[in-house]
Amino acid sequence: MNHLIEAKRRLRQEIRELKRAQDDAVLSHRSTVLCQRMLSHPRVASARVVLAYHSLSDEVDTHALLDRLWCVGKEVLLPQVTGAASMVLRKYEGKDSLREGAYGIMEPIGPLFTAYDSIDVALIPGMAFDAGGCRLGRGKGYYDRLLPLMPRTYKIGICHAFQFVASVPHECHDITMDEVQRA
Q1: Strand intervals (E) in 60-147
Q2: Which residues neighbour 68 within 8 Å (Cβ) at sequence distance 6 or greater?
Q3: What is the pLDDT along the chain (183 residues), one digit of tens a residue?
Q4: How crowded is the C-beta side of 150, counted as CA atoms within 13 Å?
Q5: Strand (E) positions, the chain?
Q6: 181 — phi, psi (to 5°)?
């Protein structure tokens, strides 16, 4: 187990170093292209309820995507960190429905959402992904605890190309993505 934890730590550090080497303008453009592609993705286009995320500066920028999904009538959900080991889902109701929360993440203040079985598709961030859908998060386990609540939801990992690696070290409790889309 110790070996696995160390492998995850090393991969996170490697991805952070790769991120620092990237051109912000190029990443921004690629984020825009990926988010436009996600709007026409068959699973997203047909979804009524979409779980997404309000991106941090080192993630694929989803800010415009959230507004677009919301404007076309999708019920958009975002996570809100509620403690050291937990997060809940809240409805996104536009840019004005966000407040800065844990870790400097903009989080929704909309109504609480608990009908996990009705989530059609989830767009999930990560530090790294591989072709098998394995995901490396930031190490806090938030998504590891949230995703089992929605076993029927189609899960799409979202990342920059440099975050797509040959192999992600994973454990039995790690939830794999149904597919990975990269910018």
Answers
A1: 75-83, 86-91, 98-100, 106-108, 112-113, 121-124, 128-129, 135-136
A2: 35, 39
A3: 589 999 999 999 999 999 999 999 999 999 999 999 999 999 999 999 999 999 998 899 999 999 999 999 999 999 999 988 889 999 999 999 999 987 888 999 999 999 999 999 999 999 999 999 999 999 888 999 999 999 999 999 999 999 999 999 998 888 999 999 999
A4: 27
A5: 49-51, 75-83, 86-91, 98-100, 106-108, 112-113, 121-124, 128-129, 135-136, 154-159, 179-182
A6: -110, 135
Nearest to 135 by CA among 169, 161, 109, 105: 169
Amino acid found at 143: Y
For residues 17 and 162, the answer to whether their CB atoms sit within 8 Å is no
